[in-house]
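Deliverable D2.4 — example input (structure tokens):
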């Protein structure tokens, strides 16, 4: 197609007008078919319509490119074969079914599809069903259809919500001279005295696992409740971190991959127990970190036709959109009157090594949430495997927003990638907290697989140290919420623990040791008994350090 271009100076600016030559047999706006208008005739026409040209020039002058707002289809939208309607995904792509049963995206056939009877849009993911009643899903036009062999379980479901429970009565501490903690620049301060605070503490495991595994319905902490004075007086620690399970908190009935069900709060006492322990720790003068440790989304399981609440029996790569937002809304509502409580939004993210679709930034997923394409099955009694199912993660920003929406002003911690050990892009992807009460969560253990006592074991990872100090220099406090060392009987010392404690002291970092539990493990256990006798090696070094601080 040829064209004639006329350039003229218009009072509103310079405009180039291009008018195509009409094709043979057509009627053109400026002449008979197959002819091209002359420059003189176009100029005369433009001169005769100055108001039109002025309007166009004004519109073009200083115009900017804007991205149209995309309104995706509503959840559970279904388009059946024979319909001319389309599903619109979050990126604005249009998905249709041709009369031949082949899906088209933006008008381009997807030749990997055939015999499709319907497509559906569920939780931001496009699904297709074929004449064999099998389903596949895609997260984007360029992604592959999963699972490879299809699934007979339909993704379509109605929205399920956690059961309505009556929360326990919350009695916050007295407001006069309240004991609390806040962020001030890259430090933590005691709100009662204004003094800088270094958290020196311990994790107490149990609440993330005991209830969901049904071990002790009467005590969801499984007999692991500390004697608080052993922590405060015996070891001179000032902080405790308490890992939780979102399904137990929400009182869900969950499903294992086998289809078996569990009562995540079998004693119907989980929230009351957490509240009582936080109140007791507060009364003992401890700062308390509440941590979302184990969680799971809704997934397809054996014998079910729609996704069900999956049993959180291990560490997920990210928080989930199905339940984690509700969890933090409820937790923040309960503890917003406890200024000594810190909210650790998610324990150990690892989308950098698990479940992130090709081309998607794991750092973006961490902050903003999004679709992952697999989930770890930790419910099969050792026969664990990956479940190739799409699910939606909740980002740190959404969880922080949920906390702040309750009116809670508590300090919030967020971790980086690689199980909270990578802070290389933490500052760039940190969620925005309007209250500026955000701290960086770090987990720092000896090098994975290193032999105790070797230089590889003893030496702190230089990159990790540099990343930590860069975050602090950018204006954020650092809380090393977990560290650990070797504690087998007869261990004379643990140089790694000596080094990381010295690093924390030298740089004003908070640090807590995993774990204050009488487990008898050869690593990462601080105590031998409930009276607080330190384990050999790790425990002795940690207690010697903590008791030298005021």
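Example output (designed residues):
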């Amino acid at each position: 197609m040829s064209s004639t271009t006329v350039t003229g100076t218009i009072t509103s600016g310079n405009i180039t007008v291009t008018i195509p030559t009409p094709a043979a047999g057509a009627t053109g706006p400026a002449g008979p078919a197959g002819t091209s208008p002359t420059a003189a005739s176009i100029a005369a026409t433009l001169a005769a319509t100055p108001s039109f040209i002025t309007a166009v020039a004004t519109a073009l002058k200083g115009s900017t490119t804007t991205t149209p707002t995309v309104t995706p289809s509503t959840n559970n939208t279904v388009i059946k074969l024979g319909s001319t309607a389309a599903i619109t995904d979050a990126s604005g792509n249009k998905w249709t079914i041709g009369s031949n049963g082949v899906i088209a995206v933006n008008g381009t056939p997807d030749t990997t599809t055939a015999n499709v009877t319907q497509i559906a849009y569920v939780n931001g993911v496009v699904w297709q069903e074929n004449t064999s009643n099998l389903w596949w899903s895609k997260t984007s036009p360029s992604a592959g259809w999963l699972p490879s062999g299809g699934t007979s379980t339909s993704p379509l479901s109605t929205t399920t919500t956690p059961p309505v429970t009556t929360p326990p009565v919350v009695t916050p501490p007295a407001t006069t001279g309240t004991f609390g903690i806040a962020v001030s620049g890259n430090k933590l301060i005691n709100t009662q005295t204004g003094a800088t605070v270094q958290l020196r503490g311990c994790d107490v495991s149990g609440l993330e696992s005991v209830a969901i595994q049904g071990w002790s319905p009467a005590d969801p902490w499984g007999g692991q409740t500390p004697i608080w004075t052993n922590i405060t007086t015996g070891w001179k620690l000032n902080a405790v971190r308490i890992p939780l399970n979102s399904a137990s908190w929400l009182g869900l009935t969950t499903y294992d991959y086998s289809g078996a069900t569990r009562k995540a709060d079998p004693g119907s006492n989980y929230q009351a127990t957490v509240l009582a322990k936080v109140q007791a720790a507060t009364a003992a003068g401890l700062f308390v970190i509440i941590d979302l440790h184990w969680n799971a989304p809704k997934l397809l399981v054996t014998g079910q036709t729609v996704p069900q609440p999956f049993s959180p029996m291990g560490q997920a790569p990210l928080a989930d959109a199905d339940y984690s937002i509700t969890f933090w809304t409820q937790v923040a509502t309960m503890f917003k009157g406890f200024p000594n409580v810190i909210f650790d939004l998610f324990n150990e993210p690892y989308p950098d090594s698990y479940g992130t679709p090709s081309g998607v930034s794991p750092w973006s997923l961490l902050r903003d949430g999004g679709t992952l394409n697999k989930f770890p099955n930790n419910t099969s009694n050792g026969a664990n495997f990956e479940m190739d199912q799409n699910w939606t993660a909740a980002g740190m920003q959404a969880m922080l927003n949920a906390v702040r929406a309750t009116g809670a002003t508590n300090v919030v911690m967020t971790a980086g990638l690689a199980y909270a050990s990578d802070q290389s892009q933490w500052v760039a992807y940190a969620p925005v907290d309007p209250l500026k009460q955000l701290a960086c969560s770090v987990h720092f253990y000896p090098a994975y697989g290193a032999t105790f006592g070797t230089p590889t074991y003893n030496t702190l990872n230089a990159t990790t140290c540099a990343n930590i100090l860069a975050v602090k220099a950018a204006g954020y406090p650092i809380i090393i919420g977990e560290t650990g060392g070797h504690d087998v009987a007869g261990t004379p010392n643990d140089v790694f623990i000596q080094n990381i404690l010295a690093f924390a002291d030298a740089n004003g970092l908070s640090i807590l040791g995993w774990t204050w539990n009488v487990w008898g493990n050869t690593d990462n256990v601080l105590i031998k008994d409930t009276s607080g006798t330190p384990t050999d090696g790790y425990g002795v070094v940690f207690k010697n350090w903590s008791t030298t601080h005021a």
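The chain has 13 helices and 30 strands.
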